[in-house]
Amino acid sequence: MLIRNKKFSMKYVLLYIVLSMTIIGGIAIGLNQYISRRLNFELNEIINLNIELTNLKTYLNKNSFQVSNYFNRNDNEDYFIKYYDNRESIISITEYIYDNIKQDENSCMYYRIMENLLIYEEELTDSLFRVRSVDVQTYGTQQELKRLYTFLDQIANNLTEACIKYQVSRYENINLLYKKVERNVYIFLLVIVLLNFLYIVTMIKDIVLNLNDFSKSAAQLALGNWYIADIEPQNSIELDLFATAFNKMKNNILDYMSELESKSQLEIELMEQKLKNAQMTQLVKESQLSNLQSQMNPHFLFNTLNIISRTAMFDGNETIVKLMQSMSKILRYNVVNIHNLVSIREELDIVQAYLYIQETRFQDQMSFDIKVENINLDEINMPPMVLQPIAENSIKHGFKNKEEGGIINVRILENEVSVSIYVEDNGEGIAPDKLKKIFSESNEECKEKCNVGLKNVKKRLELSFGQKDLLKIESVYGYGTTVTITIPKGGKVSD
pTM (2 decimals)? Predict the structure, then answer.
């Protein structure tokens, strides 16, 4: 058998078959297209040559008309100009005709006759135009030109007939040549296709025989007969690998089943351990979250009580009442929601209370504005005490050198998957080098001053939603800072 002489890879055999058939098809298509283009080109050359021959006769007739009317009309100058324009066209046409017929002796003969006649016609016409008056001599020249144009027309007809005959003969010869080449190429390609077909048939036959052996061995294993003979090595690399694996499976099947049982028990134990680890991780996460939130309370409480005490010294009872109400709302919010997610509306109420306290404290130094789109803020949850530290950071750092006119704007926008909360200030902004270090673990300054600020908020958002980049800071030094918080819709705590 052809294939049994040497091992082969079915992958490369199939690749060879696909590539060879693709190449054969490409050659056939390319050859057909090339021949078609060449024949069309030759046909177009015949058509173009015929057109130019027709144009030649037309321009000759036009010049005959211009010359005959030169002395019979008052506007002879116009005929003079038109004649020379036509002469330029005739020269261009004759050059084109010669390029296409110079291989044909018969056509060249008529072309040379016409070329000489045109030279003679040019001489007669030039002499006639130089006189510009009618006398015996010019009349004789006119008559000679009439006879010359008649002869030129006859020669043009002969040239046309000879040219067309040559081009048609040339086209037929080229067509026969191309058909012969095409036939020989197709015969060659057909031989290659037949050889490939024989090769494929031989390979398939070999594979079918091998698969039959596999089927018989597999049937014996299905009956529980593990002591059958090994499958012989195969000529196909893939089938040989399969035979080797089949023999190994057969010889080690019982050991494998025992090993499988042991692995199953081990996987159960691993799953139990993973479950314990997951529970421990969740407990640690909850502990971290509780610790981070608890950091917020003493710091904020101290600052707010300090504000209220100073306000009591300088302002009336009504202001103090409002401050105490705001403070009470914030404390109650912290105690009740320290371990829970809250709605955006609740968080917004708290930051509004906080900003009122700060607005009262700083008077004309700062103000705030809160804008919300048509959003159902009660259905979207977030961690508590997220907005307050951001607002505090804007007041503490952004307005520290601003005597008046500080503004904090809170905007809430919604898209299909999340809600974005923007806290903007027109403070002094953050220098680019400091902006890069805000969340850096190696930033010693931030470790001391920012534990209740942006770093704290960022960590709590990550722990609550299990996502990164939920807090972003953009700042233009000297113009202000914008902090963006992204809240995924649903408000679910991450697993």
Answer: 0.41
